[in-house]
Amino acid sequence: MTIPTKYLASVDQISYSRRMEFQVEEVEDFMVVGIAVRVDMSNAADLIGGLWQRWFREGIAAKIRNKSSTDTYNIYTNYEGDHTKPYTCFLGCRVDSLDRIPDRMQAIDIKGGKYAVFDVAGKIPDAVMETWMKIYQMDDLERTFTADFDVYGEGAANPENAKLQTFVAIK
Which alpha helices (H) appear in the chain, and where do they start and end? Predict the structure, then answer.
């Protein structure tokens, strides 16, 4: 992924403190329906940005049936190793049932487990990107690289001053 210079500066600034505040939560299994793209670090920013553009342009959320929540989930899963290797980015909504998945969409089961939960606040996508840059620097965070996700709820409605959460699967 090509990281904009301002994010490289952010990584340099946080190198002295690799610790961010987080809560640990047990998350139960859940299902999501939506759209996905396979990415790697060289193209993640462009492809994930394109996935979000498609999400809004095609009104994907409105087409998903059996929603259990109006929150939007941006899921990172099917890692070939860690975050520096290819993985799948999946954008969708949580559902109660996988009946009648709309055309050109797919479903994913997220297995429950222990997650480090980070509160994210600020302008989207900057605040989310900065949070992930800091997470990448947390050497002591024992990640499982099974499925990580950002949850965009009501607090994320204003992209200039959003509040959301990032869930990172841990051991």
Answer: 5-14, 44-57, 60-63, 126-136
161-170 confidence digits (pLDDT tens)? 999 999 999 9
Summarised one tens digit per residue, pLDDT across range 38-47 is 999 899 989 9
Domain of 131, CATH number, reads 3.20.80.10
On whether the CB atoms of residues 116 and 141 are closer than 8 A, the answer is yes
Residue 118: closest CA among 24, 10, 17: 24
pTM: 0.87
Give the three-state DSSP class for 50.
helix
d(CA 49, CA 74) in angstroms, rounded, equals 11
